[in-house]
UniProtKB/TrEMBL annotation:
Signal peptide: none annotated. Residues 52-376 form the Condensation domain. InterPro entries: CAT-like_dom_sf, Condensation_dom. Residues 180-203, 576-595 are annotated as: Disordered. This is Condensation domain-containing protein. It comes from the Bacteria.
Length: 595
């Protein structure tokens, strides 16, 4: 690992672009919302991308190229006015900061991962320059006058992942082609995108997205990954290429990349046979193992929508990506059919990922109040790189099965985030690299992550040569369905653990209480909370609101569907008949309609 020594800060001037003010785009509003709400958002404020440059590239080449990119893309020189009159302000001129470091890495040696992470850490720790634009920064590591690596860093308010890829792709091209270092004609910019979104057509699209969210949020599980808490006696053996980093305790993150030649060999064969795309096949494999493991066939979970619909959005640089919901019916025995279903669901989700985030939050709160659930984005899929065009197989389909022995698992500790289970797909030297990450290694431990990843790997290898009967999932993947005890119930499409619901109610009402699953008028179970008076809650509405406020991070609990406030608790609090004999002070579902 080469040490870094700061040598200078260069101010790169830019000029010649238009100066304009405009309303915020929906993507900018969304980003401002989560950056402001997340107390640990500092880890996410910037996105970095390391770029190696050809031998002989000078600092002047780098700074000239960066100046062109800032002139070309208005989001890289935009500031934001918040408050009652939120808007974006594009500067026509200004400057960006480039920090230069000297590294003691050996000349001519390959750039090591540690060298890049050290440069990222140095840039993150460097003070923001009041003179320069803080949304776009860069750093250069040099050795004896030669550039080893360039780090481009952009705020999430300026770019999403695909936009940053556009910036890096254009940076690399301009470094190689100095005669083309000019901004070129004005293309579609965030100010133009704001005008589109505020048009009648744009508003109709956003409204359709909210209707789509309403339909799916009304039926999706409280948590797709609600499973019994792991115990220390997990008998599954781990097979690691590297030691798993120490990670434990509530809220600790853990991640793993599946480095699989088998996956890369299998994907083109499956995509060609099913007439879908590589991302759709990967999503289908994730859905297959998730459904088999959890026992849930109606899969609804968050999936990133890149919102790049239309030719003008191809090289657009701005924050566009937002969550959508992927809804897949996994109730089929055919993997090929599941791939096609997932493909259709992916297209529907992609059409419904542009919306006003505050309106969505209001919708989620309304539905959560009615159902007794909390939308926590517990399960999510982020496929950040889309592989365009036909991908030719690199070998016969039988080669995928033979390559399984070369699969490697590469573990890492990611930055903190709240998602219980996240599937990510990124581009690694032109090939898809799939990984799973959890923000709660106490609930989704290394053994669970490994079994899911290897399940995906083995399923795809088997599907390379033909359709797979999903009833043979355990035989093919080694993955077994989760076993839930008698304390688990299915309520309103949610797997819940009765003791966890009891814990929520106890904390909420702070008085003797007991939760029972009683049969409703439609024959389905209704969670009923009997509560003795004397605590802070006096009405069903107060009890319900208190329970809803405690669901965050509790993936196997939901708020009861009915509350009965009794004058006192019976001697035997575990006897529902004894509770029913107590004088009732108030009862009801506690929902918004019953105040």
């Amino acid at each position: 690992m080469g040490g870094l020594v700061f040598t200078e800060r260069i101010h790169v001037k830019f000029a010649g672009g238009r100066a304009v003010e405009a309303p915020l785009t929906l993507g900018q509003i969304n980003t401002l919302e989560w950056l402001g709400d997340d107390t640990r958002a500092g880890l996410y404020r910037m996105m970095e991308w390391a770029v190696t440059v050809p031998d002989g590239t000078t600092l002047r080449d780098v700074t000239d190229t960066l100046a062109v990119l800032v002139e070309r893309h208005e989001s890289l020189r935009t500031s934001f006015v918040t408050g009652d009159e939120r808007r974006q302000v594009v500067s026509g001129s200004g400057q960006v900061a480039v920090d230069v470091y000297e590294t003691d890495a050996a000349a001519g040696s390959p750039v090591a991962h540690e060298e890049v992470t050290d440069l990222i850490a140095a840039l993150q720790a460097a003070p923001v320059d009041d003179v320069a634009d803080s949304l776009f920064r860069a750093a250069v590591a040099m050795h004896d006058g030669a550039i080893r690596v360039v780090l481009i860093a952009c705020s999430h308010l300026a770019v999403d992942c695909e936009s940053l890829a556009v910036v890096v792709r254009q940076f690399t091209h301009l470094i190689d082609n100095p005669d083309e270092r000019h901004a070129g004609p004005l293309t579609h910019q965030p100010a133009d995108q704001a005008a589109v979104e505020h048009s009648a057509r744009g508003r109709r699209r956003a409204e359709a997205s909210l209707r789509y969210w309403r339909q799916l949020t009304s039926r999706m599980p409280q948590s797709l990954c609600a499973m019994p808490r792991p115990t220390g006696g997990d008998e599954r053996e781990l097979h690691h290429d590297y030691v798993v980093p120490a990670s434990g305790g509530e809220g600790q993150p853990l991640g793993c990349w599946l480095d699989s030649p088998a996956l890369r060999l299998a994907l083109p064969h499956i995509a060609a046979r099913t007439q879908t795309t590589l991302p759709m096949v990967l999503s289908a494999a994730f859905c297959a193992v998730l459904s088999w493991r959890t026992g849930v066939s109606d899969l609804v979970f968050a999936s990133l929508a890149n919102n790049r619909i239309g030719r003008e959005m191809h090289d657009y640089v701005g924050t566009l990506a937002q969550d959508s919901l992927l809804a897949v019916d996994a109730g089929t025995t055919s993997f090929d059919e599941l791939v096609r279903r997932t493909g259709g669901a992916t297209l529907r989700a992609a059409m419904h990922g542009l919306y006003e985030v505050r309106l969505l939050q209001e919708l989620q709160e309304e539905i959560g109040d009615r159902r007794g659930t909390l939308f926590q984005r517990d399960c999510a899929s982020n496929i950040n790189i889309f592989f365009d065009g036909e991908v030719r197989p690199a070998g016969p389909p039988e080669a995928a099965q033979e390559a399984l022995s070369r699969t490697a698992l590469r573990w890492h500790i990611p930055p903190y985030f709240r998602v219980l289970l996240l599937m990510r797909v990124i581009d690694s030297d032109g090939e898809p690299l799939l990984g799973l990450t959890t923000g709660h290694a106490d609930l989704i431990p290394a053994a669970e992550i490994e079994s899911l990843l290897l399940g995906i790997d083995r399923l795809l290898a088997a599907a390379a040569t033909g359709d797979v009967d999903l009833r043979r999932m355990t035989e093919i993947t080694g993955l077994t369905p989760v076993v839930r005890g008698p304390e688990w119930l299915r309520v309103d499409n949610c797997w819940i653990e009765l003791p966890e619901v009891q814990a929520v109610v106890d904390e909420a009402v702070q008085a003797p209480a007991r939760v029972f699953a009683e049969r409703g008028d439609d024959g389905r179970p209704v969670l009923t909370a009997y509560v003795a008076s004397g605590g802070p809650v006096r009405t069903p509405r107060e009890a319900h609101r208190a329970c809803l406020g405690l669901l965050n991070g509790r993936y196997s609990a939901m708020a009861p569907g009915r509350y009965v406030i009794c004058a006192r608790a019976p001697e035997d609090t575990g006897d529902p008949a004894a509770w029913r004999r107590q004088p009732v002070l108030a009862e009801g579902d506690g929902r918004e309609a019953q105040r």
